[in-house]
Design brief:
This protein is of the alpha/beta class and 481 residues long. The chain folds into 4 domains: 2-153, 3-Layer(aba) Sandwich (Rossmann fold); 173-295, Transcription Regulator spoIIAA; 296-416, Transcription Regulator spoIIAA; 421-478, OB fold (Dihydrolipoamide Acetyltransferase, E2P), CATH 2.40.50. It has 15 helices and 22 strands. The strands form 6 sheets. Strands 3-2-4-5-6-7 form a 6-stranded parallel β-sheet, sandwiched between helices. Strand 6, helix 5 (138-146) and strand 7 form a beta-alpha-beta unit. Helix 9 runs parallel beside helix 10 and helix 13 (351-364) packs parallel to helix 15 (392-417). Bound molecules: 5'-deoxyadenosine and iron/sulfur cluster. The site of 5'-deoxyadenosine has 12 residues, from strand 16.
Amino acid sequence: MQDLITAKVHDESRQGEAYAPFANDINDYNKKFYIESYGCQMNFSDSEIVASILQGEGFGATRNYEEADLIFLNTCSIREKAEQTVRKRLTEFKKIKQAKPSLLVGVLGCMAERLKSKFLEEEKLVDIVVGPDAYRTLPVLIDGAESGQKSVNVLLSREETYADISPVRLDSNGVTAFISIMRGCNNMCTFCVVPFTRGRERSRDVDSILNEARQLFEQGYREVTLLGQNVDSYYYVPDSLSSMSNEEFTPVTFAKLLEKVAQISPELRVRFSTSHPKDITDEVLFTMAKYENICNYIHLPLQSGSTRILQLMNRTYTREWYTAKVKRIREIIPDCGISSDIIAGFCTETNEDHAGTLSVMESSAYDMSYMFFYSERPGTLAARRYADDVPEEIKKSRLKEIVELQNRLSYNSNKKDVGKTFKVLIEGNSKKSDADWMGRNSQNKVIVFPKENYNFQKGDYTMVRVNDFTQATLIGEVVNV
Ligand code: 5AD
Ligand code: SF4
Protein backbone atom coordinates (compact mmCIF):
# COMPACT_ATOMS: atom_id res chain seq x y z
CA MET A 1 0.00 0.00 0.00
CA GLN A 2 1.37 3.36 -0.95
CA ASP A 3 1.44 5.41 2.22
CA LEU A 4 2.23 8.79 0.79
CA ILE A 5 0.47 10.89 -1.73
CA THR A 6 1.29 14.53 -2.14
CA ALA A 7 0.01 17.22 -4.38
CA LYS A 8 3.54 18.59 -4.56
CA VAL A 9 7.03 17.27 -4.18
CA HIS A 10 7.66 15.79 -0.75
CA ASP A 11 11.08 15.19 0.75
CA GLU A 12 10.60 11.49 0.35
CA SER A 13 10.46 11.95 -3.40
CA ARG A 14 14.17 12.62 -3.09
CA GLN A 15 14.70 9.05 -1.98
CA GLY A 16 17.54 7.37 -3.76
CA GLU A 17 19.37 10.55 -4.57
CA ALA A 18 23.00 10.73 -3.68
CA TYR A 19 24.96 13.83 -2.98
CA ALA A 20 28.48 15.00 -3.50
CA PRO A 21 29.89 18.24 -2.11
CA PHE A 22 29.90 20.90 -4.79
CA ALA A 23 33.02 22.65 -3.64
CA ASN A 24 35.65 19.99 -3.23
CA ASP A 25 37.81 18.22 -5.72
CA ILE A 26 37.23 14.54 -5.23
CA ASN A 27 40.81 13.81 -6.29
CA ASP A 28 42.06 15.46 -3.08
CA TYR A 29 40.96 12.37 -1.16
CA ASN A 30 42.25 8.84 -1.37
CA LYS A 31 39.09 7.25 0.08
CA LYS A 32 35.57 7.87 -1.04
CA PHE A 33 32.17 7.79 0.62
CA TYR A 34 28.74 7.69 -0.89
CA ILE A 35 25.69 8.79 1.10
CA GLU A 36 21.99 8.47 0.41
CA SER A 37 19.48 10.37 2.53
CA TYR A 38 15.87 9.46 3.20
CA GLY A 39 13.01 11.18 4.97
CA CYS A 40 12.82 14.67 6.40
CA GLN A 41 14.92 17.77 5.77
CA MET A 42 16.61 17.20 9.11
CA ASN A 43 18.12 13.98 7.75
CA PHE A 44 19.42 15.75 4.67
CA SER A 45 20.90 18.38 6.94
CA ASP A 46 22.49 15.70 9.17
CA SER A 47 24.10 14.11 6.10
CA GLU A 48 25.93 17.42 5.58
CA ILE A 49 27.31 17.15 9.12
CA VAL A 50 28.34 13.55 8.45
CA ALA A 51 30.05 14.65 5.22
CA SER A 52 31.98 17.27 7.16
CA ILE A 53 33.15 14.69 9.74
CA LEU A 54 34.13 12.22 7.00
CA GLN A 55 36.03 14.86 5.06
CA GLY A 56 38.03 15.57 8.21
CA GLU A 57 39.02 11.89 8.11
CA GLY A 58 40.23 12.08 4.51
CA PHE A 59 37.09 10.76 2.79
CA GLY A 60 35.83 12.59 -0.29
CA ALA A 61 32.22 12.32 -1.46
CA THR A 62 31.26 10.51 -4.64
CA ARG A 63 27.96 10.33 -6.49
CA ASN A 64 28.87 6.90 -7.80
CA TYR A 65 28.53 4.13 -5.21
CA GLU A 66 30.55 1.76 -7.40
CA GLU A 67 33.73 3.73 -6.66
CA ALA A 68 32.96 4.19 -2.92
CA ASP A 69 34.94 2.59 -0.06
CA LEU A 70 32.15 3.49 2.34
CA ILE A 71 28.40 3.60 1.70
CA PHE A 72 26.03 5.26 4.17
CA LEU A 73 22.26 5.30 4.18
CA ASN A 74 20.83 8.05 6.37
CA THR A 75 17.47 6.51 7.18
CA CYS A 76 13.92 7.40 8.21
CA SER A 77 11.53 5.43 10.45
CA ILE A 78 8.49 7.67 10.32
CA ARG A 79 6.36 5.19 8.37
CA GLU A 80 6.77 1.51 7.61
CA LYS A 81 7.10 2.22 3.90
CA ALA A 82 10.21 4.36 4.51
CA GLU A 83 11.87 1.47 6.35
CA GLN A 84 10.96 -1.02 3.61
CA THR A 85 12.65 1.17 1.00
CA VAL A 86 15.86 1.22 3.03
CA ARG A 87 15.83 -2.55 3.56
CA LYS A 88 15.48 -3.09 -0.16
CA ARG A 89 18.39 -0.77 -0.82
CA LEU A 90 20.53 -2.56 1.77
CA THR A 91 20.02 -5.92 0.07
CA GLU A 92 21.22 -4.33 -3.16
CA PHE A 93 24.35 -3.04 -1.44
CA LYS A 94 24.89 -6.42 0.17
CA LYS A 95 25.32 -7.88 -3.31
CA ILE A 96 27.87 -5.23 -4.21
CA LYS A 97 29.70 -5.96 -0.97
CA GLN A 98 29.92 -9.63 -1.83
CA ALA A 99 31.83 -8.69 -4.96
CA LYS A 100 33.99 -6.13 -3.09
CA PRO A 101 34.62 -7.36 0.48
CA SER A 102 36.60 -4.23 1.52
CA LEU A 103 33.47 -2.11 1.06
CA LEU A 104 31.90 -0.90 4.31
CA VAL A 105 28.16 -0.25 4.53
CA GLY A 106 26.66 1.83 7.33
CA VAL A 107 23.17 2.73 8.49
CA LEU A 108 22.69 6.18 10.02
CA GLY A 109 19.71 8.08 11.38
CA CYS A 110 16.36 7.05 12.77
CA MET A 111 16.27 3.42 11.61
CA ALA A 112 19.73 2.87 13.10
CA GLU A 113 18.45 4.27 16.38
CA ARG A 114 15.27 2.19 16.32
CA LEU A 115 16.77 -1.15 15.34
CA LYS A 116 20.19 -0.72 16.94
CA SER A 117 22.52 -3.71 16.62
CA LYS A 118 19.74 -5.83 15.08
CA PHE A 119 21.14 -4.78 11.73
CA LEU A 120 24.51 -6.32 12.57
CA GLU A 121 23.38 -9.39 14.45
CA GLU A 122 20.25 -10.64 12.75
CA GLU A 123 20.43 -9.40 9.25
CA LYS A 124 24.16 -9.08 8.64
CA LEU A 125 23.37 -6.38 6.15
CA VAL A 126 25.70 -3.71 7.46
CA ASP A 127 29.04 -3.04 9.17
CA ILE A 128 28.31 0.22 10.97
CA VAL A 129 25.20 1.43 12.82
CA VAL A 130 25.12 5.02 14.08
CA GLY A 131 22.24 6.95 15.66
CA PRO A 132 21.56 10.66 15.07
CA ASP A 133 23.45 11.88 18.15
CA ALA A 134 26.59 9.77 17.66
CA TYR A 135 28.08 11.06 14.40
CA ARG A 136 31.16 12.47 16.12
CA THR A 137 32.23 8.89 16.84
CA LEU A 138 32.13 7.92 13.15
CA PRO A 139 35.95 7.99 12.74
CA VAL A 140 36.42 5.48 15.58
CA LEU A 141 33.55 3.32 14.34
CA ILE A 142 34.92 3.25 10.79
CA ASP A 143 38.37 2.26 12.11
CA GLY A 144 36.75 -0.50 14.14
CA ALA A 145 34.75 -1.79 11.19
CA GLU A 146 37.87 -1.75 8.99
CA SER A 147 39.51 -4.11 11.45
CA GLY A 148 36.46 -6.36 11.51
CA GLN A 149 34.78 -5.20 14.73
CA LYS A 150 31.08 -4.61 15.20
CA SER A 151 30.65 -0.87 15.13
CA VAL A 152 27.52 0.44 16.81
CA ASN A 153 26.82 3.68 18.61
CA VAL A 154 23.19 4.58 19.18
CA LEU A 155 23.56 6.62 22.35
CA LEU A 156 21.18 9.56 22.44
CA SER A 157 22.38 12.79 23.98
CA ARG A 158 20.73 15.64 25.87
CA GLU A 159 23.33 18.14 24.65
CA GLU A 160 24.59 17.26 21.19
CA THR A 161 23.72 19.90 18.56
CA TYR A 162 26.84 19.63 16.36
CA ALA A 163 27.03 23.41 16.85
CA ASP A 164 30.74 23.64 16.03
CA ILE A 165 30.65 21.46 12.92
CA SER A 166 30.52 23.34 9.65
CA PRO A 167 28.28 21.31 7.34
CA VAL A 168 29.64 20.41 3.91
CA ARG A 169 26.85 21.51 1.57
CA LEU A 170 25.75 18.53 -0.49
CA ASP A 171 24.12 18.80 -3.88
CA SER A 172 23.70 22.50 -3.29
CA ASN A 173 22.22 25.00 -5.72
CA GLY A 174 24.43 27.63 -4.04
CA VAL A 175 21.35 29.77 -3.28
CA THR A 176 19.30 27.98 -0.58
CA ALA A 177 20.56 26.07 2.47
CA PHE A 178 19.25 24.44 5.63
CA ILE A 179 20.48 25.34 9.11
CA SER A 180 19.65 22.99 11.93
CA ILE A 181 18.69 25.08 15.02
CA MET A 182 17.56 22.35 17.39
CA ARG A 183 17.38 18.58 17.68
CA GLY A 184 14.95 16.06 19.13
CA CYS A 185 11.33 16.48 20.18
CA ASN A 186 9.56 16.49 23.55
CA ASN A 187 6.02 16.47 22.23
CA MET A 188 5.18 12.80 22.31
CA CYS A 189 2.48 12.77 19.65
CA THR A 190 1.23 9.23 20.15
CA PHE A 191 1.69 8.16 16.49
CA CYS A 192 5.25 9.42 16.19
CA VAL A 193 8.51 7.54 16.50
CA VAL A 194 10.69 10.68 16.41
CA PRO A 195 10.92 11.29 20.19
CA PHE A 196 12.33 7.74 20.46
CA THR A 197 14.76 7.97 17.53
CA ARG A 198 15.94 11.55 17.96
CA GLY A 199 15.69 11.96 21.71
CA ARG A 200 15.03 14.96 23.91
CA GLU A 201 14.68 18.43 22.54
CA ARG A 202 17.72 20.73 22.73
CA SER A 203 18.44 24.12 21.17
CA ARG A 204 21.67 25.01 19.42
CA ASP A 205 23.91 27.89 20.52
CA VAL A 206 22.54 31.08 18.99
CA ASP A 207 25.96 32.43 17.96
CA SER A 208 26.84 29.28 16.05
CA ILE A 209 23.54 29.58 14.13
CA LEU A 210 24.16 33.25 13.31
CA ASN A 211 27.75 32.54 12.24
CA GLU A 212 26.59 29.75 9.94
CA ALA A 213 23.93 32.02 8.39
CA ARG A 214 26.43 34.89 7.93
CA GLN A 215 28.97 32.59 6.31
CA LEU A 216 26.35 31.24 3.92
CA PHE A 217 25.37 34.78 2.98
CA GLU A 218 29.01 35.70 2.35
CA GLN A 219 29.35 32.63 0.12
CA GLY A 220 26.46 33.89 -2.03
CA TYR A 221 23.54 32.00 -0.48
CA ARG A 222 20.34 34.04 -0.40
CA GLU A 223 17.94 31.85 1.59
CA VAL A 224 18.28 29.86 4.79
CA THR A 225 15.67 27.51 6.27
CA LEU A 226 15.90 27.13 10.04
CA LEU A 227 15.19 23.50 10.80
CA GLY A 228 13.89 21.66 13.81
CA GLN A 229 11.16 19.16 14.70
CA ASN A 230 9.41 21.96 16.57
CA VAL A 231 11.19 25.26 15.88
CA ASP A 232 8.79 27.41 17.89
CA SER A 233 10.01 25.87 21.10
CA TYR A 234 13.58 27.00 20.36
CA TYR A 235 14.94 28.42 23.62
CA TYR A 236 18.58 29.11 24.18
CA VAL A 237 20.03 30.42 27.43
CA PRO A 238 23.47 31.87 26.80
CA ASP A 239 26.21 30.73 29.12
CA SER A 240 26.05 33.37 31.89
CA LEU A 241 29.70 32.91 32.91
CA SER A 242 31.05 33.95 29.55
CA SER A 243 28.47 36.69 28.96
CA MET A 244 29.42 40.31 29.45
CA SER A 245 26.32 42.34 28.66
CA ASN A 246 22.71 42.12 29.84
CA GLU A 247 21.60 41.48 26.30
CA GLU A 248 23.61 38.26 26.32
CA PHE A 249 22.00 37.07 29.57
CA THR A 250 18.55 37.17 28.02
CA PRO A 251 17.24 33.81 26.84
CA VAL A 252 16.74 33.68 23.09
CA THR A 253 13.25 32.62 21.96
CA PHE A 254 12.43 31.51 18.42
CA ALA A 255 11.00 34.95 17.60
CA LYS A 256 14.25 36.58 18.76
CA LEU A 257 16.34 34.11 16.78
CA LEU A 258 14.28 34.76 13.63
CA GLU A 259 14.82 38.48 14.08
CA LYS A 260 18.56 38.08 14.55
CA VAL A 261 18.88 35.96 11.41
CA ALA A 262 16.68 38.38 9.44
CA GLN A 263 18.93 41.27 10.49
CA ILE A 264 22.00 39.67 8.86
CA SER A 265 20.90 41.22 5.57
CA PRO A 266 17.62 42.24 3.93
CA GLU A 267 18.92 40.28 0.93
CA LEU A 268 18.90 37.02 2.91
CA ARG A 269 15.55 35.26 2.98
CA VAL A 270 14.65 33.33 6.10
CA ARG A 271 12.30 30.35 6.27
CA PHE A 272 11.63 27.84 9.03
CA SER A 273 10.09 24.42 9.56
CA THR A 274 8.29 22.80 11.34
CA SER A 275 5.84 24.71 13.57
CA HIS A 276 3.64 23.02 16.14
CA PRO A 277 0.29 24.89 16.28
CA LYS A 278 0.43 24.95 20.08
CA ASP A 279 3.82 26.71 20.15
CA ILE A 280 3.76 29.33 17.39
CA THR A 281 3.29 32.66 19.16
CA ASP A 282 1.99 36.09 18.20
CA GLU A 283 5.54 37.30 18.78
CA VAL A 284 6.72 35.02 15.95
CA LEU A 285 3.90 36.21 13.70
CA PHE A 286 4.62 39.89 14.39
CA THR A 287 8.33 39.31 13.76
CA MET A 288 7.43 37.70 10.41
CA ALA A 289 5.24 40.70 9.56
CA LYS A 290 7.98 43.17 10.55
CA TYR A 291 10.74 41.79 8.32
CA GLU A 292 10.16 41.60 4.58
CA ASN A 293 12.90 38.98 4.23
CA ILE A 294 11.21 36.53 6.65
CA CYS A 295 9.11 34.53 4.22
CA ASN A 296 5.34 34.56 4.57
CA TYR A 297 4.95 30.83 4.76
CA ILE A 298 4.13 28.52 7.68
CA HIS A 299 4.04 24.74 7.70
CA LEU A 300 1.42 24.10 10.40
CA PRO A 301 0.59 20.38 10.60
CA LEU A 302 -3.06 19.72 11.46
CA GLN A 303 -2.85 15.87 11.56
CA SER A 304 -6.60 15.56 12.18
CA GLY A 305 -9.59 17.89 12.22
CA SER A 306 -11.42 15.92 14.93
CA THR A 307 -10.90 17.06 18.51
CA ARG A 308 -11.42 13.51 19.77
CA ILE A 309 -8.70 12.15 17.46
CA LEU A 310 -6.39 15.08 18.25
CA GLN A 311 -6.72 14.13 21.91
CA LEU A 312 -5.83 10.50 21.17
CA MET A 313 -2.87 11.80 19.18
CA ASN A 314 -1.81 13.97 22.16
CA ARG A 315 -1.62 17.03 19.93
CA THR A 316 -2.84 19.22 22.84
CA TYR A 317 -5.15 21.44 20.74
CA THR A 318 -8.75 21.21 19.57
CA ARG A 319 -10.08 21.78 16.06
CA GLU A 320 -11.46 25.16 17.19
CA TRP A 321 -8.12 26.16 18.64
CA TYR A 322 -6.34 25.22 15.40
CA THR A 323 -8.86 27.14 13.29
CA ALA A 324 -8.44 30.20 15.52
CA LYS A 325 -4.65 29.96 15.03
CA VAL A 326 -5.05 29.97 11.24
CA LYS A 327 -7.35 33.00 11.55
CA ARG A 328 -4.75 34.77 13.70
CA ILE A 329 -2.01 34.05 11.14
CA ARG A 330 -4.15 35.55 8.38
CA GLU A 331 -4.96 38.60 10.53
CA ILE A 332 -1.31 39.38 11.19
CA ILE A 333 0.13 38.20 7.82
CA PRO A 334 -2.76 38.44 5.32
CA ASP A 335 -0.88 36.89 2.38
CA CYS A 336 0.73 34.05 4.38
CA GLY A 337 1.09 30.68 2.65
CA ILE A 338 0.01 27.82 4.91
CA SER A 339 0.67 24.12 4.42
CA SER A 340 -0.16 21.08 6.53
CA ASP A 341 0.47 17.42 7.35
CA ILE A 342 -2.60 15.19 7.53
CA ILE A 343 -2.92 11.60 8.72
CA ALA A 344 -5.86 9.53 7.43
CA GLY A 345 -7.20 6.60 9.41
CA PHE A 346 -5.67 7.03 12.87
CA CYS A 347 -6.90 4.54 15.49
CA THR A 348 -10.70 4.61 16.04
CA GLU A 349 -11.24 7.32 13.38
CA THR A 350 -14.89 7.39 12.25
CA ASN A 351 -16.47 8.87 9.13
CA GLU A 352 -17.50 11.83 11.26
CA ASP A 353 -13.91 12.40 12.44
CA HIS A 354 -12.76 12.19 8.84
CA ALA A 355 -15.41 14.74 7.79
CA GLY A 356 -13.98 17.00 10.52
CA THR A 357 -10.54 16.78 8.89
CA LEU A 358 -11.96 17.71 5.49
CA SER A 359 -13.81 20.70 6.94
CA VAL A 360 -10.73 22.10 8.72
CA MET A 361 -8.71 21.65 5.52
CA GLU A 362 -11.39 23.57 3.65
CA SER A 363 -11.59 26.42 6.14
CA SER A 364 -7.78 26.64 6.40
CA ALA A 365 -7.54 26.80 2.56
CA TYR A 366 -4.10 25.19 2.57
CA ASP A 367 -1.81 25.95 -0.34
CA MET A 368 -0.27 22.51 -0.02
CA SER A 369 -0.32 19.44 2.22
CA TYR A 370 1.65 16.29 2.89
CA MET A 371 -0.89 13.52 3.31
CA PHE A 372 -0.37 10.07 4.78
CA PHE A 373 -2.05 6.87 5.87
CA TYR A 374 -1.61 6.12 9.52
CA SER A 375 1.23 3.62 9.85
CA GLU A 376 1.63 2.01 13.26
CA ARG A 377 5.19 2.34 14.56
CA PRO A 378 6.49 -0.12 17.14
CA GLY A 379 7.15 1.35 20.57
CA THR A 380 5.05 4.49 20.09
CA LEU A 381 2.33 5.35 22.58
CA ALA A 382 -0.38 4.68 19.98
CA ALA A 383 1.05 1.22 19.25
CA ARG A 384 1.00 0.42 22.97
CA ARG A 385 -2.37 1.96 23.82
CA TYR A 386 -4.68 1.71 20.82
CA ALA A 387 -5.63 -0.83 18.19
CA ASP A 388 -4.79 0.09 14.59
CA ASP A 389 -8.40 -0.64 13.80
CA VAL A 390 -9.26 1.34 10.67
CA PRO A 391 -9.26 -1.15 7.78
CA GLU A 392 -6.72 -0.51 5.04
CA GLU A 393 -9.43 0.01 2.42
CA ILE A 394 -11.03 2.74 4.50
CA LYS A 395 -7.68 4.41 5.18
CA LYS A 396 -7.12 4.37 1.43
CA SER A 397 -10.48 5.84 0.48
CA ARG A 398 -10.24 8.57 3.15
CA LEU A 399 -6.74 9.48 2.00
CA LYS A 400 -8.01 9.68 -1.57
CA GLU A 401 -10.69 12.16 -0.50
CA ILE A 402 -8.14 14.20 1.42
CA VAL A 403 -5.82 14.32 -1.61
CA GLU A 404 -8.67 15.28 -3.93
CA LEU A 405 -9.70 18.09 -1.62
CA GLN A 406 -6.11 19.33 -1.35
CA ASN A 407 -5.77 19.29 -5.13
CA ARG A 408 -8.83 21.51 -5.35
CA LEU A 409 -7.52 23.84 -2.62
CA SER A 410 -4.10 24.07 -4.33
CA TYR A 411 -5.80 24.79 -7.65
CA ASN A 412 -7.87 27.58 -6.09
CA SER A 413 -4.85 29.00 -4.33
CA ASN A 414 -2.83 29.10 -7.58
CA LYS A 415 -5.75 30.53 -9.51
CA LYS A 416 -5.97 33.42 -7.06
CA ASP A 417 -2.33 34.26 -7.83
CA VAL A 418 -2.94 34.87 -11.54
CA GLY A 419 -2.42 38.57 -12.24
CA LYS A 420 -0.40 39.11 -9.03
CA THR A 421 3.24 40.18 -9.04
CA PHE A 422 5.71 38.51 -6.66
CA LYS A 423 9.30 39.05 -5.65
CA VAL A 424 11.06 35.86 -6.73
CA LEU A 425 14.44 34.50 -5.66
CA ILE A 426 15.99 32.71 -8.66
CA GLU A 427 17.25 29.23 -7.71
CA GLY A 428 18.38 28.00 -11.14
CA ASN A 429 17.20 26.79 -14.52
CA SER A 430 13.71 25.37 -14.74
CA LYS A 431 13.69 21.57 -14.87
CA LYS A 432 12.03 21.56 -18.28
CA SER A 433 13.98 24.22 -20.16
CA ASP A 434 17.27 26.11 -19.86
CA ALA A 435 15.48 29.05 -21.47
CA ASP A 436 13.42 29.48 -18.27
CA TRP A 437 14.34 30.35 -14.69
CA MET A 438 12.84 28.64 -11.66
CA GLY A 439 12.43 30.48 -8.36
CA ARG A 440 10.11 30.83 -5.40
CA ASN A 441 7.97 33.60 -4.00
CA SER A 442 7.79 34.41 -0.31
CA GLN A 443 4.86 31.96 0.08
CA ASN A 444 7.16 29.13 -1.09
CA LYS A 445 5.41 28.62 -4.41
CA VAL A 446 7.57 27.64 -7.37
CA ILE A 447 7.42 30.14 -10.24
CA VAL A 448 8.83 29.47 -13.71
CA PHE A 449 9.42 32.32 -16.15
CA PRO A 450 11.33 32.92 -19.39
CA LYS A 451 14.86 34.34 -19.11
CA GLU A 452 14.27 36.60 -22.14
CA ASN A 453 17.12 39.08 -22.56
CA TYR A 454 17.43 39.94 -18.88
CA ASN A 455 20.85 39.43 -17.45
CA PHE A 456 19.90 37.56 -14.26
CA GLN A 457 22.00 35.07 -12.33
CA LYS A 458 20.78 32.48 -9.87
CA GLY A 459 20.63 34.12 -6.44
CA ASP A 460 19.14 37.32 -7.91
CA TYR A 461 15.72 38.67 -6.98
CA THR A 462 13.26 39.83 -9.60
CA MET A 463 9.59 40.79 -9.82
CA VAL A 464 7.47 38.28 -11.73
CA ARG A 465 3.84 38.60 -12.75
CA VAL A 466 1.86 35.36 -12.79
CA ASN A 467 -0.01 34.67 -16.03
CA ASP A 468 -0.85 31.00 -15.73
CA PHE A 469 -0.32 27.92 -13.53
CA THR A 470 -0.19 24.15 -13.43
CA GLN A 471 -1.01 22.07 -10.35
CA ALA A 472 2.38 22.58 -8.71
CA THR A 473 3.84 25.62 -10.50
CA LEU A 474 3.03 29.23 -11.23
CA ILE A 475 4.02 30.49 -14.67
CA GLY A 476 4.90 34.12 -15.17
CA GLU A 477 7.03 36.81 -16.77
CA VAL A 478 9.46 39.40 -15.49
CA VAL A 479 7.99 42.83 -14.89
CA ASN A 480 9.85 46.02 -14.15
CA VAL A 481 8.21 47.82 -11.27
N1 5AD B 1 1.89 7.33 10.35
C1 5AD B 1 1.60 8.22 9.36
N2 5AD B 1 2.10 9.45 9.31
C2 5AD B 1 2.94 9.83 10.29
N3 5AD B 1 3.60 10.99 10.52
C3 5AD B 1 4.33 10.85 11.64
N4 5AD B 1 4.17 9.62 12.16
C4 5AD B 1 3.29 8.97 11.34
C5 5AD B 1 2.73 7.68 11.34
N5 5AD B 1 3.01 6.81 12.32
C6 5AD B 1 3.44 12.17 9.68
C7 5AD B 1 2.88 13.35 10.48
C8 5AD B 1 4.08 14.23 10.64
C9 5AD B 1 4.85 13.96 9.38
C10 5AD B 1 6.27 14.35 9.40
O1 5AD B 1 4.71 12.58 9.20
O2 5AD B 1 1.88 13.97 9.71
O3 5AD B 1 3.74 15.61 10.79
FE1 SF4 C 1 6.62 13.68 15.96
FE2 SF4 C 1 4.81 15.31 17.12
FE3 SF4 C 1 7.45 15.72 17.53
FE4 SF4 C 1 6.40 16.21 15.10
S1 SF4 C 1 5.88 17.30 17.03
S2 SF4 C 1 8.32 15.09 15.55
S3 SF4 C 1 4.85 14.64 14.94
S4 SF4 C 1 6.27 13.94 18.20
